[in-house]
């Protein structure tokens, strides 16, 4: 790792974050993660692969429009194939997002009797929020996804409890998609975990606007997603590039790779101030599959300051 680029924001310890491109990576629980202010630097080999991606040009606007139109259907098929087996439960979340604990000394309005309201955007089958509820956090969860099948799987989970979990189908790119399901400006915590990368960058502003519409002054937004120069971005083959840092996988789902600056600006435009953020560098190793690859994610925290 390039020490000159190192600007540690916070020292973190985490499990591996399961990824879309590598089936079942082994993890090193003792690995220390750091947040860096700069993304991973490209090797010469990476640069060659990125140049190759461009050789066949970008996908046509016709295909791009088709992918956009079929986005929900493609994720639905994904959950039909994989059901709850693909993503692993995310057990790193409390360690890295201590805001989830909502310590009462930081907020006098929080009492043991008062649940905080958490909105999980693009919740999939609940790998983020079910572990939080299991660990006893006093939360009421609003969980939305545009795959109806994912929402059905959430409702079939053994810990599903309709008092505590409001799971609903919503397309985050559609105006006012959240307000019919959520009391006005009631959400204390929002999570955007590997969801915005699945959405066209031209629609990210709509998602941020929807999220802002249900937040109150002081709400916290927690973000983790793919970062620029991640190994999975380099591995895309020619013919899978939609636009700058935006790709389509073989199953029709899409992946965008973020820079810190653009995430900070995206949410700032809708009233969220970034309190912490950086690139999370990891190495994924899987001896059986001969994989040893650099992964890089983007992690950031925001506070909503209602204009
Ligand atoms: C990579 S998965 C992440 C799931 C979950 N956040 C997790 O961490 O396990 C991305 C999810 O975003 C959902 N998604 C993609 N675009 C969406 C949109 N426009 N509106 C709502 N959900 C969307 C997909 O259906 C999928 O469940």
Automatic annotation (TrEMBL):
<dbReference type="InterPro" id="IPR013217">
    <property type="entry name" value="Methyltransf_12"/>
</dbReference>
<dbReference type="Pfam" id="PF08242">
    <property type="entry name" value="Methyltransf_12"/>
</dbReference>
<feature type="domain" description="Methyltransferase type 12">
    <location>
        <begin position="119"/>
        <end position="219"/>
    </location>
</feature>
<dbReference type="GO" id="GO:0008173">
    <property type="term" value="F:RNA methyltransferase activity"/>
</dbReference>
<comment type="function">
    <text>S-adenosyl-L-methionine-dependent methyltransferase.</text>
</comment>
<protein>
    <recommendedName>
        <fullName>tRNA N(3)-methylcytidine methyltransferase</fullName>
        <ecNumber>2.1.1.-</ecNumber>
    </recommendedName>
</protein>
<dbReference type="InterPro" id="IPR026113">
    <property type="entry name" value="METTL2/6/8-like"/>
</dbReference>
<comment type="similarity">
    <text>Belongs to the methyltransferase superfamily. METL family.</text>
</comment>
<dbReference type="InterPro" id="IPR029063">
    <property type="entry name" value="SAM-dependent_MTases_sf"/>
</dbReference>
<dbReference type="GO" id="GO:0008757">
    <property type="term" value="F:S-adenosylmethionine-dependent methyltransferase activity"/>
</dbReference>
<keyword id="KW-0808">Transferase</keyword>
<keyword id="KW-0489">Methyltransferase</keyword>
<dbReference type="GO" id="GO:0032259">
    <property type="term" value="P:methylation"/>
</dbReference>
């Amino acid at each position: 790792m390039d020490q000159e680029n190192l600007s540690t924001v916070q020292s973190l310890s985490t499990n591996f974050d399961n990824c879309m491109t590598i089936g079942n990576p082994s993890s090193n629980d003792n690995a220390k993660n750091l947040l860096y202010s700069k993304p991973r630097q490209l090797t010469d080999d990476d640069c060659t692969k990125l140049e190759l991606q461009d050789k066949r040009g970008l996908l046509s606007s016709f295909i791009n429009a088709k992918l956009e139109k079929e986005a929900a259907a493609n994720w639905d098929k994904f959950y039909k194939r994989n059901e709850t087996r693909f993503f692993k439960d995310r057990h790193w979340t409390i360690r890295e997002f201590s805001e989830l604990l909502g310590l009462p000394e930081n907020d006098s309005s929080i009492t043991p009797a008062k649940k905080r309201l958490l909105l999980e955007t693009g919740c999939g089958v609940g790998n983020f929020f079910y572990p939080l509820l299991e660990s006893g956090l006093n939360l009421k969860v609003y969980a939305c996804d545009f795959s109806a099948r994912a929402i059905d799987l959430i409702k079939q989970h053994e810990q599903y409890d309709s008092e505590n979990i409001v799971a609903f189908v919503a397309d985050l790119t559609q105006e006012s998609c959240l307000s019919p399901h959520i009391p006005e400006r009631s959400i204390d915590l929002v999570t955007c975990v590997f969801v915005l990368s699945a959405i066209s960058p031209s629609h990210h502003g709509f998602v941020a606007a929807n999220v802002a519409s249900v937040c109150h002054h002081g709400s916290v937004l927690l973000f983790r997603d793919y970062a620029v120069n991640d190994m999975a971005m380099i591995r895309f083959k020619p013919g899978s590039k939609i636009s700058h840092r935006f790709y389509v996988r073989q199953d029709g789902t899409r992946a965008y790779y973020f820079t810190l600056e653009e995430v900070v600006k995206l949410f700032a435009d809708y009233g969220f101030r970034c309190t912490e953020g950086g690139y999370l560098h990891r190495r994924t190793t899987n001896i059986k599959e001969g994989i040893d690859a650099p992964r890089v994610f983007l992690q950031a925290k925001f506070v909503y300051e209602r204009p």
